[in-house]
Amino acid sequence: MIMPFRGYLRDYSLPKILIELNRNRETGTLSITTPRFTKKIYIRGGNVIFASSTFEDDRLGEMLIKAGKITMGQYDKSVELLKSTGKRQGAILVELGYITPKDLFWGVKYQVKEIIYSLFQLDEGEYEFVEDIPPDEVITLKISTNNLIYEGVNKINNLTRIRRDMPDAHTIFTLNEDPSGIFRGIDLSPQDAKILSLVDGTRSINQVIEQSRMNSFDVMRTLYVLWSTGFITQKETAEHGLDVQETINVEEILVSMAEEEKNLKNKVEELYAKLPRMSPAEMLQANEKTGPEEIKKTYQRMTKEFNPDRVHASGDATLRTKITVIFDTITQAYNSLKDEKRRMEFFGALEKIPKKEEDTETVLIEEQFRRGVEEFKNGNFWGAVEIFKWVTKNNPRNPKAWSYLSLALSKMPHRMKDAEEALLESIKLEPYSGEHFANLGILYLKGGHKKKAELQFEKALKLDPANAKAKKGLEQAQ
């Protein structure tokens, strides 16, 4: 069944909606509306990043009181200042010294999770998913969507709802045979792990309950959690072509998962090494004739393959970092190509780059440099990077081209190292230019390296005491 983007929770439960959006790597806003409130979940690339609510008890201040982070008196004082200043309550609480910035970040994340958890309790309400880019004021939080669904479903205490949503009690469950779709970063409780071990492809729901020797409702809820999150799936009968006696072993799946992570790591290493040289078109295997639907399918396939959730529980921090960079780069490439106008601009820029045999004329290189500057000013940073790469390749002693290449790279995610290397080429060619050092200082400042930035601004001012960019940067770095 294909999930409709608008409907009722009674017909399509929240776990199924979130899993479907995650599987398809959708970006947009999921709204849940009841007569009392509207709550929104903001999603990017299938992952939950934020949530908001019109329900008064979901406000940050109320959440911090319930969590024991502030007192009622502190809450009331912050509300008074909120009304008179118009500032955000969280900022006021920090200014008053009631909480630290770290407490505030914890509180916002706690608030988001509690808003979402509350939605799992609903069995009535209208939902709507709108494909769009989350608004600028939305904070991007790193939340494991699979753990969020797992924990949210685990909080459901409505037996009637669970029995209504679950298959018949005589249904046989089996472990999901697709390791990429299960266990992804989810930490099972000991109770859930025990019940999972009883799911072997031969026992019915009733038999699992009986053999567990545990509270029937607890077992039903655990099976509901495992089923909703994709750990287990309904067993097909022999009538559908499968042997009823065929079983799947947990240990075998875990071994398979280890092998899968090894294969994934090799793919990550290979693609990560190519990133600096890849354009959006190369990333998504597209050309000027590739349509938006085909680009979207490639994007969905790649973000599924290189989703950071797949290594969420991995002890390899480098692997987690690299796959996140790849995922963000794929998303950025898709955002550059999914819009028809931007796609035409990008391929239009590439079409005008001369072939290698035509690159002998200096005037041609200068013309391409001007086009690169124009593309950059128009916001086509990917196209500008490709053009400046061509210019620096055919005229490697052009310091301005290296400088602009650095500037364009700095506008793209996770390309600061490449931007730094391009700017260092400019400095190597023009070591007495204060402008290059000022730009390098800005680059370091943007990356949070204040000491390194300060050093570059001082170098710039020695060469050019009137450099306004360096003066302002030095003030910010100190």
Categorize the overall geometry: globular
Order of helices and strands: EHEEEHHHHEHHEHHHEHHHHHHHHHHHH
How would you write the strand order of the largest sheet? 1-5-2-3-4
Query: Sheet bearing the most strands, described?
Result: 5 strands, antiparallel
Helix proportion range: 55-70%
Structural class by helix and strand composition:
alpha+beta
Number of helical regions = 22
Which runs of at least 5 residues are low in confidence (pLDDT < 50)? Answer: 179-183, 237-257, 356-361
Averaging pLDDT over every residue, what do you get? 79
Percentage of residues in strands: 5-15%
Distance between the termini: 58 Å
Number of strands: 7
For the CA atoms, what is the radius of gyration? Answer: 27 Å
Polypeptide structure, described:
This protein has helices spanning 14-23, 60-66, 72-85, 89-95, 101-120, 145-154, 159-165, 190-198, 205-212, 216-228, 250-274, 280-283, 292-305, 317-337, 340-351, 362-377, 381-394, 399-410, 416-429, 434-446, 450-463, 468-477; strands spanning 6-8, 28-33, 38-44, 47-53, 126-131, 173-175, 232-234. It is built from 22 helices and seven strands. Residues 179-183, 237-257 and 356-361 have low confidence and may be disordered. Among the domains are: 6-149, no CATH class; 157-248, no CATH class; 252-338, no CATH class. The protein is of the alpha+beta class. Helices cover 57% and strands 7% of the residues. The chain has a five-stranded antiparallel β-sheet, covered by helices on one side. Strands 6-7 form a two-stranded antiparallel ribbon.
